[in-house]
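Anyone opening a protein record will find just a pair of labelled lines. A complete record is shown below as an example.
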Amino acid sequence: MIGPENTPHIESIINRFDAPFFFYDLDAMERHLSSMIKDLDPSIKLWYACKANPMSAILKLMRNLGLGIDVASTGELHQVLNTGINPNEVLATGPGKSKEYLKALLKAGIKTIVLESKNQAIWLSELIAEMNVNVQTLVRVQLDWADGKSVLGGNAITPFGLDTAEWEDFNFENYTNLNIKGFHVFQWGNILDVNRLKEIWFKTVEEIQAFSKKINIECEVLDLGGGLGIPYNFEDTPLEFSSIKSLLTEIKQKFRLDQIWMELGRYTVGDHGVYLSKIVDIKTVRGKKIIVCDGGINHIARVALVNEAFPVTAFNKSSDETEEYNIHGSLCTALDYLGTFNLPSSLKIGEWLMFQQTGAYGFTESMPYFLCHMLPGEVIMYKNNLMIPRPPKPSFDWMI
């Protein structure tokens, strides 16, 4: 969570711009990441899934701490390379790899690529031969599960990878230049229960090791993706990474794995960012108290996408007396709903709400151009210095 020591800095941004913005505490993020990598088994590799937040300052922090970077688009690739990330420390994932994109990855010097289809395997093999380059690959497998949904599929059929039967039908012996190092399986997201993670990962390893023997491809690397959750409910208990370290070590020893990779997104950055939006109206509709803010799902779309709100507090205001409010943004759609929360009954128009856990899946997951509202600013605190890489922008700065 963003600590009270940042209150004066946040107030200074409010006074200066009077417009919605994201605030990231990179000092707290650095402490969190440093504790994660401390005493980590060197055969457990951590990658940062930059789709969670591709801001250059965050990418540099990840780079400086030794995390690799996972990219899943041309835009993320350029952002990562422009930030000075070594191509050897980039992992290319994602189902939408065209042959042109695969060529761009190779031209950029990317050395590790996840294969999500037979077409990707064939195209990449052709490009490796044509360009005379060396890469290593992982085969992404989509497993069957008895029940449960997830933003990454869970038991649903998704475009991520192929099932084991489809891969078994592919003649890998004809594509030896793919240099397959292992497998990638990731179908579950935002899990806060270590026992649930253990259940998922044990099943994954057991099935992948059986599949590895069946197709005669050694599993030197098993990429378990991410899935580590952060609490979007004030009552939930945060997941301690020390328990994840112990679990991964247990899995590695039990199943005699050489390397385990993890692609962590929200768990690395989510807790260290907040989004602030000003209250522009308070009213009662059919007996329900309503707050309308100057920013909503155009800046933080999560609640509309997955029906789970970011936790909200009144910025720099406390009260023993609270009441329930429905919170909405200013868009002309009922979808612009940000959740229902108990907040101080003394809230006034012109005061600000602070949405927690928005260090991940905030601005780049949003729909910022709808209704031509302000683009939110992005502000960082690092080494006790306040920096504003992008101030809030009115529509006349970007409309054509």
Q: What stands out?
A: The chain has a mean pLDDT of 94. The chain has two domains: 93-264, 271-397. DSSP finds eleven helices and 17 strands in the chain.
